[in-house]
Amino acid sequence: MVGARVAGSPAAIELARRGRKVVVLDSSTFPSDTLSTHVVFPTLTAELAALGALEPLLATGTPKQPKVLINHGGIDVHWDYTPVDGYDFGMCPRRTTLDGVLVDVAREAGAEIREATKVTGLEWTAGRVSGVHYKDREGNTGTIGCKLVIGADGRRSTVASLVGSAVPYRRDENGRGLVFMYVDDPYPADSEERSQLFQWRVGDTLGMYFPTCDNGAVVLFMPPREQVNWFGQDLVHWNERLNQYPMLKERIAGGAPRTKLRKASDPFSYFRKSSGPGWALVGDAGHFKDPVIAQGIRDGVHYGRKLGQAAAAALDDPTWLDRALFDWELDRDRECVISYHFALRLSKTHPVSPVELEIWKASEHDPQRARRLADAFGRTLSPEKLLNYPDLITWTARGFLDRRQSNRDVLGDVTRELSTKARLYRDLARISRGKRLVPRNWEAWGGTKPIPPEKLTADHVAPRQPQRSDLARDEGELVRASANGVHPAPTLEQAS
Ligand SMILES: Cc1cc2nc3c(=O)[nH]c(=O)nc-3n(C[C@H](O)[C@H](O)[C@H](O)COP(=O)(O)OP(=O)(O)OC[C@H]3O[C@@H](n4cnc5c(N)ncnc54)[C@H](O)[C@@H]3O)c2cc1C
Predict the structure, then answer these.
(1) CA of 183 to the centre of ligand 1 (A)
(2) Fewest CB atoms within 10 A around its CB: which of 157, 209, 362, 451?
(3) Residue 126's CATH number
(4) How buried is residue 243: exposed, middle or buried, by Cβ count under 10 Å (0-12/13-18/19+)?
(5) Phi-psi region of 363 (alpha: psi -120 to 50; beta: other; left: phi over 0)
(6) What would the pLDDT profile of 237-251 be if each residue is shown by its tens digit?
(7) Whose CA is nearest to atom 18 of ligand 1?
(8) CA distance 116 to 135
(9) Based on the domain organization, do 334 and 356 belong to the same domain?
(10) What is the pLDDT of residues 389-426, one digit of tens each?
(11) Domain for residue 317, yes or no?
(12) Same domain flag for 427 and 283
C-alpha cells in the first residue's frame, strides 16, 4: 500500500483484519497535516464507527455536529440529518487528528506502517505489478514483493504515473477555489454553538465556519478560483471579504488566527483508470471531485474499505483479483459520478440563480424539505431525487412567476440543469454496460485524441510531470499586511 491517510489506512485495516499481510509505505510521518479542509457527514461517522476509529476520534475532543445553518440568497435554512446506522452527526476533525487515528487503528489491526518511506518505482513480472521500490529517510533503498499494489497516494499519485494512468481520462474544471485559515473558536469547548456548521453565500462566494477539534475552527471562503490569488495577497483583502459576511464575522469575533492563510486554486475534478493487473488506485489517486460538497474523505474511507474487502478475498488468484478490482472500480464510479455532477453544479460561481432560490425558499420553513437537502449533501439521498422532475417543474414555474427574476435567467437555469442530467445519464448508461465513464476533455488536458480508457497503456500516455498549477500547494504563507515584514498573527478583529 502506498499512502496511509484516509484512503490507505482503511484499505489496510480491512486487509489486515482478514488475515492478509499488509505493508503501508508513506513518505509523510504521522500525525501530520495535509492541504484539505475536513467537513464530514454522518455517512462517514458511521464508516469510522465500523472501523473502530470513531471512539478514539471523539476522545480527542472533536465536536459532534448534528446541525447546519445554510444561508443562500438571504434565506436561512436549518437542517439536521437522517441518521446513518444510528449516527446523526457530522464532524470537522483536523486531518492531523483524523489521519493519525486511522494510522493507529491500522497498526492495531496488524498492518505494518513505514513512515518517511517514499515509493520510487514498481516491480513488474509478466505484465503484472509485483512489488514496489522504495527509499527511506536514511536513504536506504529496497524492494517489497506483493500480489497487489494499492496507490492511495493522493492527487499527484506516483503509482498512477508508474502504471501510465496519471492522465485522467475524464477531467472537468472546478469553478471554485479555496482560501482558509484556522482560528480560535471564541465559544467554550462544550457550548451549543460548536455543534453547528455554517455556510453563507454572498454573491458568487461561499463563506463557511466549521468548529474543529482543539477548540479551534476553520474559516473558509470558496470564491471563483481566479479570485484566490487576490484573496490570499494580504489580510486586507481577506478582511474586506469578511466584512461582507456580518454573521460570519460575528461568529468568529475575538477568535485569533492560529495559522497562516492556505489556498487551493486549481483542484480540478477527474477520474483516472483505477485498476489493472496487480494494481489499484483509491482515494484521490483515482478520483477527485470539487471539495464544495465535502465528500473526498468519505469516498477515500468508503472505497478504501470496499477495496480492502474485495481484494482480501481474491488476492490468491490473479484473474479473480483483476476482475474484482475492475468491479470495485465500476462500483465506485457508479456512485461517485452522481456526486461528481452534483459538485460541478455547486462549483458554478454565479450568484444564487432563480431556480436555486426557489429551492431555498421551499426549504426555509419546511423541516422535511430541509432534511432532504441535508441528506443530498450527506449522501443518504441521491441529488437526482432532490432535483427531481416534478419539483424542477414547480420551481421553474415559480421562477417565471416571480417578477423580480428575469425569464431568461430562469430558462438558462433550467437548460443547464437538463443538460447536466443528460450528461449524468449518459455516464450511468455507459457504466451499466460494464464500461468506464465517457472520456472527456482530453484536449483541455493537453492530450491528442480520445483513446478509450480500456485501451490506455503506458505507451499511449507519456506520464506527465505534475505541475504546480495542478494543485496549488499549501502556500502556507501568512500574507503580509504591509511590505515591511511579517505581522505576528493579528486577530481577525484587529485586522478588519
Ligand atoms: C483544499 C481542499 C479542501 C478539501 N476539503 C474537503 C472537505 O472539507 N471534506 C472532504 O471530505 N474532503 C475534502 N477534500 C478532499 C480530501 O482532502 C481528499 O479527498 C482526501 O485527502 C484524499 O485522501 P487520500 O488518502 O486519497 O490522499 P492524501 O490525503 O493526499 O494522502 C496521500 C498520502 O500518500 C503519501 N504519498 C504520496 N506519494 C507517495 C510516495 N511516492 N510514496 C509514499 N507515500 C506517498 C502522502 O505522503 C500522503 O500521506 C479537500 C481537498 C482539498 C484539496
Answers:
(1) 22
(2) 451
(3) 3.50.50.60
(4) exposed
(5) alpha
(6) 888 899 999 999 999
(7) 296
(8) 9
(9) no
(10) 999 999 999 999 988 888 998 999 899 999 999 999 99
(11) yes
(12) no
